[in-house]
Amino acid sequence: MSSSESFVIPAWPITRVPVVGHSADFPVHRIYCVGRNYEDHAKEMGFTGREPPFFFMKPADAALVVNTGVTASLPYPSLTRNFHYEIELVVAIGKGGKNIAAADAQQHIYGYAVGLDMTRRDLQGEMKKQGRPWCIGKGFDFSAPIAPITPAAQAGDVEHAEIYLQVNGQDRQRGNVSQLIWNIAETIEQLSAAWELQPGDLIYTGTPAGVGPVVVGDLMQGGIAGLTPLQLRVV
Ligand code: MN
Q: How far is the CA of 4 from the centre of ligand 1 (A)?
């Protein structure tokens, strides 16, 4: 009996992200995201920038792989009239654990990638106003574009790397990962206190200031120094 006969409906494939310098891929388990983790972005969203970290999730299959040197197509999602980009450093977890101390966080990291936390801002805002979950604003199909993952040892000093996003060749976001309110190790400490991290988890660590809308036809180019950049067109 083949394995395809072991399920009562067709099973779906594991979401996989290419890894720089490897023929094998990184399997995606969960996608965690950190909210308002750069002070200038927290302020542009109307907050002080001095709050404990908080988290939300996207489905694993919301990851949209953007291969090296390729312009990926990002479908404009349904139900929104305010589709926002958020350029983010993504941390790929290689070794799981719970209650991981910040001092031990590095050994749980497989690598890093450039990602976008795409957001239906109007729907997120409506949910915020009503005190309802953000899922419809954050966890929709194709909401987590990601470039190939660079293993940590080859990624350079991502903690102090420039991060940027351009739309149609113009700068919209430009900051530095060193501006994170909760750095990578602190984020892993806090996140692993709430969930047991697993190999294959991705953490979208938050976005610097300058978030804004894109429309069909717009070209987004984003990057972080030392990592593979990504390029997408909204279709
Ligand atoms: Mn975000």
A: 37
Task: Indicate whether 10 belongs to any domain.
Answer: no
Token pair, residue 71, equals 């312009």
Note down the domain range covering 31: 16-234
Q: State which amino acid sits at residue 95.
A: K
What pLDDT, on a 0 to 100 scale, did the predictor assign at position 158?
Answer: 97
Q: State in Å: Cα 133 to ligand 1 middle.
A: 15
32-91: pLDDT as tens digits: 999 999 988 888 888 876 788 999 999 999 999 999 999 999 999 999 999 999 999 999
DSSP H or E segment with residue 171: strand 170-176
The residues that bridge with 139 in the sheet, in sequence order, are none
How far, in Å, from the CA of 86 to the mean position of ligand 1?
6
Total-model pTM? 0.96
CA of 98 to the centre of ligand 1 (A): 23
Q: What CATH number is attached to the domain comprising 101?
A: 3.90.850.10
